[in-house]
Amino acid sequence: MSASNISTEDTLTVAPFPSRRLNRWAEMIWQVAGGVNIRTKILGMVLALTIMLGLAVTWQVRVVMARVFVDELENRGVSVVSDLASRSIDPILLNDTYALYLLLRDTVLNHPDVLYAFILNPEGEVLAHTFGDAGFPIALLNSEIVNAAEYNLHGVIRHWVYKSNEGLVHEMIAPIMEGKAGVVRLGLTERRLQAIVDAVTGQMLLTTLAVAVAGIIAAMILTWLLTRPILDLVRTTQAVGRGDLQVRAPHWANDEIGTLANAFNQMVTELEASQRAIAEKEQARHMLLKKLITAQEEERKRIARELHDGVGQVLTSLMVGIRTLQRSDASLQAERIDDLCRIAGETLEQVRTLSRELRPSLLDDLGLAAALERYASEFTRVYPEVQIDLHCALPRRLPTPIETALYRIVQEAMTNAARHSRATVISVLVSQRNGSVQAIVEDNGVGFDVEAVRRRQSSVGIFGMNERAELLGGTLDIESGSDGTTVYVEIPL
Amino acid sequence: MKYPSRLIVFFNLLWLILVGLGGCSSGLTAKAALFIDLQERTPLPAAAPAEVAPLRMGVAAILSPQGTMASYSALTEYLARKLGRPVDLVQRRTYAEFNELVERGEVDLAFVCTNAYVVGAETFGMELLLAPEIDGKSVYYSQLIVPVESAAQSMADLRGEVFAFTDPMSFTGYIYPLYLLRQLGETPETFFQRTFYTYSHDRAIEAVANGLADGAAVDSLVLDYALQREPEMAARLRIIYTSEAFGIPPVVVPPSLPPRQKAQVRNLLLTMHEEREGQIVLRQLGIDRFIEIEESAYDDIRRIVQFMRSQQ
Questions:
Q1: Neighbours of B298 (CB within 10 A)
Q2: Residue B30's closest chain A neighbor by CA?
Q3: What DSSP state is assigned to residue A37?
Q4: pLDDT at A204 over 60
């Protein structure tokens, strides 16, 4: 079958056979089988199997029984007719017709399947028969019929079968004394054996019917057992779809459907957990935003205060000094100018520090390593009791967002260590390997309860570090104990 | 309404299959082509009266009916051919029944036992026609036989055994062994454990050969013939006594037979051995020819019969 032929059968949902006709049949069967529910499918399978088995066995038994019975009937006929042939010799030769009649009558009486028996002399005249006074079925003597019959031979005994109003009749014809004393003909009917075969067939069909009924009941129970957990699952799925994450599918049994229910329940549980995590994160983000805004205001307030208190005061005193210089003596002017220059220089230094704190220009100009070194030296100036041990091994500049994030995370970690942990040594290690950049900030301080802090969501600093790392697809871990705290950051490049 | 209609179709199919299986009652063997109406009965046609009256040839049950048929059928055919009319072979179970046939003239020609002839001649004038001749003699004997493994040497040794008689009217098979017992001063009732009748000599021989009887007295002609035909029988039998010679069983006619017929039959039998066809028939009967015989040939038998009668 060529590809073009197959393509014309695209409408078929099932096409497992190479023959178009078979596929049509498969399609038709599938349309019926696929169109009904599981209950009908199982019922159909059970009924089809039961009835097919029952009918096949019944048919087989019937055929075998019929064959055995017919063989047995023929064998019995052969032995009865042989017996008759030998026992009728003396009565025939002694012309004892009554003994001959008794012999035939007893044979018919003693063998339930024998319908009749009669004896012909060599001239073809009936010597004795068992048809009674009503007469003789003369057709049996019709030489045309007898000659036209097809005979099976059992030795010298001829056997043929004809239809009659008594059903099928097997007639056995045996010569008496090789035919010199005549022939005996014996008719056997299949009727009794037929009745037995029919009775057995009927019994088996009734049994098949009973088994089919039992099958229907079993199939109904089976489908109920099978479909109830499935329907429960469907209901649970719909409830979950509506947003109810508290529902769980009942676990009926440890079978495949039970496994499915377990997997489904697991999925709902995880869905619920992840929804909760999303909600928590959302809440944290919300708080961070609030704190960020507050922090921004605080920062502005501080800068405003610094400008006002520092730069503003100095500029004011500069202005006052310049006015005084205007009115002072020339001898004192030189000294005054020196003072003013010193004040201006201090002010400039204050402005520079403020500017650096807002955004270290080194980070943009020279990169993370230089910026961190500068920060470390300033940090030592602010916290002279803390020793900083900085190793920064970066072969080249990193993307700006990563440099900024790492700078801020390290800055936050160092500030936290100096402010809260009473550490005396802070070690910072920044390195790049396997397509990611890592930073480790380690101190020898008193440590803190990381989980408690995270749960309270009170520390904007820790949350901010986390957020910065996660924004860039990285991770941040904090390990803390009584001998110090370690912050690990890893950001993929 | 989709499923119910499908169900109905399904159950209809099922029903059809069940009925089809249960209903194939046409027979266990479906190969008969002919039909015969066994209910159509008509009275049997009466046997057409024979155009020519057949010659009825009777043979007494010296042999079993089958043995008689085997031996005498050739003779019936021969006579029928020669006479140009059918010949019926008539048999009866016992000598007594047979003698009645002869007395009533229901047979035209009869082969009888010697005692049957003696009694028949005495009571209704049974006529002696001819007698067979074998090896130039027309005599026979009563022979006492026992199974080959028997230790008996004479009648006296059979005391307390089972004895087979042939027929109450048989000379060699009944009267002569009784005569022997008489000489021993015994009767069958006192001497034997049990006796029974076989109603023919060949069956008495078989009874002894098969161990059914421990002894029997039989016609020497029948015994010779049986041993000749079945040599293996000789290995199972032993003859322990042979009587003196008696007149051979004769061919008789009823007194009522017309003289012309009697002469015709007599001539036919007397000349049989002269032609080849007749010789074959005679060989079948185990005899050489038929000869005329004197009434006196049976005097010895008459004497013993008279003696036995006088003893009762």
A1: 24
A2: A168
A3: -
A4: yes
DSSP assigned state of A386: S
In-domain check, residue A478:
yes
* Contact criterion met (CB below 8 Å) for B200 and B67: yes
- Mean pLDDT, residues A346-356 taken together: 80
Across the interface, whether the CB atoms of A90 and B41 are under 8 A apart is answered no
Residue A67 domain-assigned (yes or no): no
Interface pTM, i.e. ipTM? 0.76
The number of folded domains in chain A is 2
Q: How do residues A43-56 score in pLDDT, each as one tens digit?
A: 888 888 888 998 99
pLDDT digits (tens, 9 = 90+) for B223-246: 998 898 888 888 999 999 999 999
Exposed / middle / buried, residue B74 (Cβ in 10 Å: 0-12, 13-18, 19+): middle
Nearest in space to A437 (alpha carbons), one of A388, A484, A396, A479: A396
User: A464 Cβ partners below 8 Å, 6+ apart?
Assistant: A288, A408, A412
Calculate Rg over the CA atoms of chain B: 29
Which helix (H) or strand (E) segment holds residue A168: the answer is strand A167-176
Find the CB nearest B40 among A125, A139, A190: A139
Structural domain of residue A179, as residue ranges?
87-198
Where residue A373 sits, what CATH number does that domain have? 3.30.565.10
Torsion angle of the four alpha carbons A190, A196, A198, A200, in this order, in degrees rounded to the nearest 10: -150
Q: Which residues of B touch A198 (CB under 8 A)?
A: 22, 25
pLDDT for res A10? 45
Q: Where residue A153 sits, what CATH number does that domain have? A: 3.30.450.20
Report d(CA A87, CA B310) in Å as an integer: 40
Residue A291 lies in a domain: no
d(CA A154, CA A78) in angstroms, rounded, equals 7
Q: Which of residues 40-99 of B touch A (CB under 8 A)?
A: 40-44, 47, 64-66, 68-69, 73, 89-93
Would you call B34 an interface residue with chain A, using a CB distance cutoff of 8 Å? yes
CA B135 – CA B221 distance, rounded (Å): 12
Inter-residue contact A376 to A413 (CB < 8 Å): no
- The residue of A75, A89, A93, A162 whose CB has the most chain B CBs within 10 angstroms, and thus the best one to mutate to test that interface, is A93
Domain end position, chosen among A138, A163, A198 = A198
Mutation for B interface: A37, A138, A180, A188, most B CBs within 10 A: A138
Q: Which domains does chain B have, with CATH numbers?
A: 55-135+250-298 (3.40.190.10), 139-247 (3.40.190.10)
Q: Which of B38, B42, B44 is the closest to A166 by Cβ?
A: B38
- Chain B contact probe: residue of A40, A68, A94 with most B CBs at under 10 A: A94
Interface check for B105 against chain A (CB to CB < 8 A): the answer is no
The model's pLDDT over A230-267, given as tens digits with 9 standing for 90+, comes to 888 888 899 988 988 888 888 877 888 888 888 989 99
Whether A59 and B90 lie within 8 Å, measured CB to CB: no
- The alpha carbons of chain A give a radius of gyration, in whole angstroms, of 57
Q: Cβ B29–A66 below 8 Å, yes or no?
A: yes
Residue that is last in its domain, among A152, A168, A198: A198
Those of residues 155-174 in A touching chain B at CB distance below 8 A are 161-170
State how far the alpha carbon of B100 is from the alpha carbons of B103, B106, B120, B182, B250, in Å.
Answer: 5, 9, 9, 29, 17
- Residue A205 domain flag: no
Nearest CA in chain B to A189: B27
